Amino acid sequence: MNDAKKAAGEQAAELVRTGMRVGLGTGSTTAYALRAIGRRIRESSLHVMGVPTSFASERLARECGIPLTTLDDIDELDLALDGADEVSPDLDLIKGRGGAHTREKVVAAQARRFIVLTDPSKDVDRLGAKRVLPVEVLPMATGPVLRTLSGLGADASLRMGREKDGPVVTDQGFWLIDAQFDGGIDDPAHVDRTLRDTPGVLDHGLFLDMATDVFVGHPDGSVEHRQRDE
Ligand code: 5RP
Q: Which CATH number applies to 133-204?
């Protein structure tokens, strides 16, 4: 799928114009966009400012030579570019495989256009059909949030480190719970509301009514552009 991710990332990077303020998402697909923006800064005097969505995207942006700013210093982003784990036919998303969904949502919400970069493996008829829904929690709220997710019909567990003992700790110092919904999520809006109303949940990986555009890269290098109906 790397050719597909590269095609989506590089085509989306072409939307960036001089003077724009751009949200810089996290993940392997968006990394192709960040590298392409970096090349244009070096080779064709593109001037942009980026707001990173994670320590990972901040480090990659610095490596690519993309100047950075913060949401305290600017009041709006022209574009946010980011990947997704699942995309529904309505362009709703599950994000957060990389544990960056909380900052990704903050940044996407400040953007006039939220451009999502994917490949065909991310398409689902129903959110939660293929991937888990990540939920970022205050560590002491883990038990109550696990019980809330169980009440919503999910099989939920704490995400554990691979090369570090104990739970994965996010960029914010919180923990992650991964919720598996057998057969997908029946009512994403209800899950969204319930989790938002649960004390101790910082945020979760459902991005409903947020994506304005999805660029789906294909292995032959072609890119399909989908847009949300207004
Ligand atoms: C990180 C994310 C990523 O954007 C999502 O997991 C897609 O990643 P990739 O482009 O590597 O498939 O939400 O939290």
A: 3.30.70.260
Q: Which positions are annotated as active-site residues?
A: 104
Global pTM exceeds 0.85: yes
Task: State the distance from the centre of ligand 1 to the C-alpha of 141, rounded, in angstroms.
Answer: 25
Q: Do domains 2-124+208-227 and 133-204 have the same CATH topology?
A: no
pLDDT along the chain (230 residues), means of 10: 95 97 98 98 95 98 98 97 98 97 98 98 98 98 98 98 96 98 97 98 98 98 92
> Which 8-state DSSP code applies to residue 68?
B
Which residues are CB-neighbours of 118 under 8 A, at least 6 positions away? 8, 29, 83, 84, 87, 214, 215, 216, 217
Domain 2-124+208-227 annotated CATH 3.40.50.1360: yes
Ligand 1 centre distance from Cα of residue 197 (Å):
25
Q: Ligand 1, residue 30: give the atom nearest the CA.
A: 10
Domain ranges of the chain: 2-124+208-227, 133-204
CA distance 201 to 154: 16
Mutate to test the pocket of ligand 1, among 97, 178, 214 (most ligand atoms within 8 A of CB): 97
